[in-house]
Amino acid sequence: MHKDTVHVPRTRSRFRSTLPPYTPPSTPHHDHPIWADASISDFVNIIKMLTVGGGPTSSTKSPANAQTVHVVISDIGVLTTSALLLYAACNFGLSTVAKVYWIPYMVVNAWLVLITFLQHTDARVMRFRAQEATKSIKNVLGKYYLQESESV
Length: 152
What we know:
By secondary structure, this protein is mainly α. It is built from 4 helices and no strands.
């Protein structure tokens, strides 16, 4: 959990010393276009988030040198999968690949993105820091708690 870079919301208190005091916006649409509050805009943004992923809190950090090998391996995996899908589409047809691979993939992806989004935006969901989570899980699991010393 210490090295989780998928989505860790930053808190204002973490940057309190470097941030200016918060001032509410002077106009309701000072930083985004007026159509951003329209229902169709929300719908388009949700579809974009569920299919492409990302959002305003996505990590855009470049990988550290130690992770470069893993990024290259991941890129090779993506290219290999793309090549296999192209091969399958040429041999079995695009509609078969869409029914067998693309539609199930998009459904699973949409659910994962939606669940992650709700976990990080719903005020009713309890949030733990790493130490608090470890302490809580130790109490729940008792003697069955096993500690991993290296991160995944």
